[in-house]
Design goal:
With 401 residues, the chain is an alpha/beta fold. Helix content is 40%, strand content 14%. The protein has 15 helices and 14 strands. It has helices at 17-23, 39-59, 72-84, 102-114, 135-141, 164-173, 193-196, 234-237, 245-264, 266-281, 315-324, 344-348, 353-357, 370-390, 396-400, and strands at 5-6, 66-69, 93-97, 121-125, 146-150, 177-181, 200-204, 215-219, 287-289, 305-310, 327-328, 334-336, 339-341, 359-363. The longest helix is centred in the N-terminal third of the chain and has 21 residues, at 39-59. The structure holds pyridoxal-5'-phosphate (PLP). Pyridoxal-5'-phosphate (PLP) binds next to helix 3.
């Protein structure tokens, strides 16, 4: 049987066995609706509140400031539209960056297009060649009408970490709400909402070895937030709908395990494995790291991610060729109307479109072993060489060198 190695943990992670075990009873013997007042309901209510405590501990906030959602996308949308309903409209202004996940970018786009007659206005802050936002640009973009700044904590394609604490300080000084999408930071680097100074922060279960379809939004006490869904008074009237109890229990357990992982130094071990893989891959000719500038200066990154371009290769072709040999990785490219578009993140960093399309993301998870990394390192150089050999545009002289 072909060995299969999964290095696409920024897309989703496997549910850890302890998480699955914690969730299991809530599908069967503890099936109560957490809003019911009888014993069945009390049991699940207690489990939901324990999970809320665990998530709050991971984020350094109070349990009452955690709102459970159906995932990162809903939490991002709730932050942006929830705040928007309290004031963002025609003439109002929000600031984001060019490298956000589509859960933020498309929410901002929608606000600008449809809210009111003229739409609210959005400023997209550019990034430098490493993919980093300059907080001075954020400060310069502030207007009297600015209501919200939303800049992600860590990028899903490159792993690049933004200076969120500096941006939080700027937002606080200007009395502007600050949201950060921490979906790709949670579980990988420690998070403290008070050190960041954010009012809203998003996490997602399936990126931290919890289940898919559950996430959470941190909402600082006193932050006005209109719900997006109308129904019962669940989640202190911030998110209507019967709680996904097994999912929430799984997210809580994943948060607990993330904390244990930090105490054990899992993040340092993962960075060492990632760096090893990266060094080996950069030995292949005509490759380069996305997340470093032309002098080789690296941006701060989460420990599990590297993004590398392989000149002369179509990223999609490499993903498929590696998949056939048992290795799962990904490109940041999107398929729109039948054509592969280069990643908006890499283009925003100034990469040529062909180089952006030749880029691959490798993202490690807690289940990966040193053997997995060796497997990838054995497979990739020969696969890249083979694809280049087949390429009509790749100079044959370079292949035989
Ligand atoms: N934000 C970032 C940075 C992400 O990477 C993702 C998922 O890829 C999301 C938001 C959306 O999260 P979910 O898949 O839980 O909706």
């Amino acid at each position: 049987m072909t060995r299969r190695v999964y290095l696409d943990n920024n897309a989703t992670t496997s549910v850890l066995p302890e998480v699955l075990e914690a969730m299991r009873p809530y599908f069967s013997e503890h099936f109560g609706n957490a809003s019911s007042i009888h014993r069945h309901g009390q049991e699940t209510r207690a489990a939901v509140e324990r999970a809320r405590e665990s998530v709050a501990t991971l984020l350094g906030c109070r349990a009452s400031e955690v709102v459970f959602t159906s995932g990162g996308t809903e939490a991002d949308n709730l932050a942006i539209f929830g705040l928007a309903n309290f004031g963002l409209g025609p003439g109002e202004h929000l600031i984001t960056s060019t490298v956000e996940h589509h859960a933020v970018l498309n929410a901002c786009k929608h606000l600008a297009k449809y809210r009111g007659m003229t739409g609210c206005e959005v400023t997209y802050i550019p990034v430098d060649g490493r993919g980093v936002v300059d907080p001075a640009d954020v400060k310069r973009a502030i207007r009297p009408s600015t209501k919200l700044i939303t800049v992600m904590f860590a990028n899903n394609e490159t792993g690049v970490v933004q200076p969120v604490a500096e941006i939080g300080k700027i937002a606080a000084e200007a009395d502007i709400y600050f949201h950060t999408d921490a979906v790709q930071a949670a579980g990988k680097i420690p998070i403290d909402v008070n050190k960041i100074g954010c009012d809203l922060l998003t996490i997602s279960g399936h990126k931290i070895h919890g289940p898919q379809g559950v996430g959470a939004l941190y909402v600082r006490k006193g932050t006005p937030l209109e719900p997006m869904l109308y129904g019962g008074s669940h989640e202190r009237s911030r998110r209507a709908g019967t709680e996904n109890v097994p999912g929430i229990v799984g997210l809580g357990k994943a948060a607990e395990l993330a904390i244990v992982g930090f105490e054990r130094g899992d993040d340092f071990k993962m960075a060492a494995a990632r760096d090893h893989l990266e060094r080996e891959l950069l030995e292949i000719e005509a490759t380069g790291l996305n997340g470093a500038d032309s002098n080789g200066e690296l941006a701060p990154r989460v420990p599990n991610t590297t993004n590398i371009y392989f000149d002369g290769i179509e990223g999609e072709a490499l993903v498929i060729a590696l998949d056939l040999k048992g290795l799962a990785v990904s490109t940041g490219a999107a398929c729109s109307s039948g054509a592969i578009e280069p990643s908006h993140v890499l283009v925003a960093m100034g990469l040529r479109p062909d180089r952006a399309k030749a880029s691959i993301r490798f993202s490690l998870g807690k289940q990966n072993t040193a053997e997995d990394v060796d497997f990838a390192m054995d497979l990739i150089p020969e696969t890249v060489a083979r694809l280049r050999e087949l390429s009509p545009v790749w100079p044959k002289s370079a292949v035989s060198r």
